Amino acid sequence: MKKIFYLLVLILFWNCDDKNNKPMSGNYRFIGDSLKIEKKLSQHKLPGFSIAVFKNYRIIHAQQWGVKAANNQEKIDVNTSFSTASITKPVTALLCLILEEKGLINLDEPIKKYLKRWQLPESEFTKNIKVTWKHLLSHTAGTSQHGFSDFYDGDTVPTIVQSLKGQLPRYNDKEIEFLFVPGTSWKYSGGGYVIVQMALEDHLKKPIAELAQEHIFTPLNLKNTTMIQPNEYGFLSNVAKVHDEDGNIIKTGLPITPQLAPSGMWSTPTDLAKLAIEIQNALRNKGNTVISYEVARKATAISALKDAAGGWSLGWQLSFGYDNYNWFQCNGSNTGVGGDIFATMEDGNGFVIFANGEKSNRFPVIDYTRNTLLSIMKWKKEIPKNKIKPIPTNVQNALVGTYDDFLYQRSFETIIVAKNNRLYIQSPFFEHFKGTKESEMVYLGDNVFKIIDYPNFIKVETNKNGQAINFLIYRDSPDTLAVTIPLNKK
User: Fold this and answer.
1) Burial of 466 (C-beta count, 10 Å sphere; 0-12/13-18/19+)
2) Position 271 pLDDT exceeds 80
3) Does residue 175 sit in helix, strand or coil?
4) What CATH number is given to the structural domain containing 460?
5) Which residues 6+ apart lie within 8 Å of 66 measured at CB?
6) 55-109: per-residue pLDDT in tens?
7) Range of the domain at 421
8) What pTM value is reported for the model?
9) For residue 487, what pLDDT band results from cuts at 50, 70 and 90?
10) Shared domain check, 335 and 189
């Protein structure tokens, strides 16, 4: 009966998948022509590269370059899956939200209620607060263990209990611990997602790979996506192997990841584009078939701003505001493989990129591709003219100068300059992630600015004498999750 059910689900969504997500050609061939990826692969010793681009809620272009493995020269195709690394995290968070909607878990409850094989370590930071699922999914639990090492066929692969206890060869030789009071700050933690994996499996008595397949991958017809590992029955046959900085395959080329929830998924750019479009459709409550509006809204709502590099939701990074759109994004980076997924919260635009090479090889090509796509696709959302106000001269004069970074609270300088009665902000972040040195600060009145390529609002706080003293950074409202940064000119 279960097989019949899955067959009916596949048939139900097959036509919808073909209609809305089949890559278009014609006018969009300029994308591949503009990228000139072949030259980049040769220049950076990168074995293979794969992209999918979507616009107005449809995949408009998918293209692949290079090979799956350096030792056989078999070409990467549209169905070739890559190890997605941390892009697994927002998918795990999405799974949790779907399971909550179905009444199977409660993400606001203490997660210790769901754990059987292992319990949270004692800590002075958690004496007076209960650690919830949401704390862990938003990286606000204060847990350690940023990431994990890779394993290959022939290695002794640890269990997730051993992982949490720090019993890992070559990496994480210390049990996971709490570093601050949950909910008071933000720190990226793969270990926190391993706790989520254990809670799901202990409570629902199913492997997380099976849960993801049942509730996300099969219903959305993501045929080339799985959390099954290379050492397990049912692993995908069409995959890109991982390579070192010299372009050679690392060991077997197939990393095994016991920590499935933070980094164990394999997928293609096209499958992840379908997933992103489903979330985008759900956010407008139109055309979505599996993910509800409420689940999509919770998945992409900002959950952390303080110390969170511009903002995070449950799994998604919300640090990007290219051309006045808010984007949900995730980067995946493992040894010898990695990629990015970028999607707008409105209008259904975005792209997914993967490459099977080491960081020094793939980063320059991925960065170049992202910046080129943002330039040639011309996705731009205008601020209504009736909301834009003239900048008061005293405010403009007070702001021009050089500062320690206040946008992302990172260790570089941020500069505000005036040009033709307009203010522009110069940031290494913009230069790296978009390829443009500066972005305009649009004045909305009441000392509030919206930066074109930044997702948060900035309010200049003044003292009783009218002198600017602080930047107040917020996303939706200054009354929630706001961060106050002292205004210190250099």
Assistant:
1) exposed
2) yes
3) coil
4) 2.40.128
5) 41, 46, 47, 48, 49, 75, 76, 356
6) 999 999 999 999 999 999 899 999 999 999 999 999 999 999 999 999 999 999 9
7) 385-486
8) 0.93
9) confident
10) yes
Do 418 and 359 fall within a single domain? no
Residues with Cβ < 8 Å from 322, sequence gap 6 or more?
A: 374, 379, 434, 453
Owner of token pair 């009916």: 8
Residue percentage of the chain with pLDDT more than 70: 94
Task: Give the CA angle between residues 292, 294, 296 to the nearest 5°.
Answer: 70
pLDDT at 294 over 90: yes
What is the tens place of the pLDDT at every residue in 230-245? 999 999 999 999 999 9
Q: Are residues 353 and 430 in the same domain?
A: no
Give the count of beta carbons closer than 10 Å to the beta carbon of residue 72. 9
Angle, helix 88-101 to helix 293-300, in steps of 10 degrees = 140
Q: Would you call 65 helix, strand, or coil by DSSP? A: strand
Residue 169: predicted pLDDT: 67
Q: What is the pLDDT of residue 411?
A: 87
Note whether 154 and 203 are same-domain residues. Answer: yes
Contact between residue 109 and residue 133 where contact means Cβ atoms under 8 Å apart: yes
Domain termination site, one of 323, 352, 377: 377
The domain tally of the chain equals 2
- 32 with 71, same domain? yes
Distance CA 390, CA 112 (A): 53
Residues 6+ apart with CB under 8 A from 303: 134, 137, 138, 140, 312, 313, 314
Same domain flag for 193 and 259: yes
pLDDT tens column, 364-378: 999 999 999 999 999
Q: Report the CATH number at residue 138.
A: 3.40.710.10
Residue from 159, 166, 184 nearest 121 by CA: 166
Terminal-to-terminal C-alpha distance of the chain: 69
- Sequence-ordered strand ranges (E) for 239-366: 266-267, 327-334, 337-344, 350-355
Paired sense of beta strands 58-66 and 468-474, if any: unpaired
Is residue 327 predicted with pLDDT exceeding 90? yes
Distance CA 335, CA 247 (A): 12
Contacts of 477 (CB under 8 A, 6+ apart): none
Segment holding 82, helix H or strand E: strand 82-83
Kindly list the strands in the beta sheet with 438-445, ordered across the sheet, starting from the edge strand earlier in the chain: 401-404, 413-419, 422-426, 438-445, 448-451, 457-462, 468-474, 483-486
Query: Domain boundary at 377, 405, 423, which?
Result: 377
Q: Are residues 295 and 419 in the same domain?
A: no
371 and 430 assigned to the same domain: no
Report the 10 Å Cβ neighbour count for 407: 25
The structure tokens listed for 277 are 């479009």
Angstrom distances, CA of residue 472 to CA of 184, 295, 402, 424, 433: 17, 29, 17, 18, 23
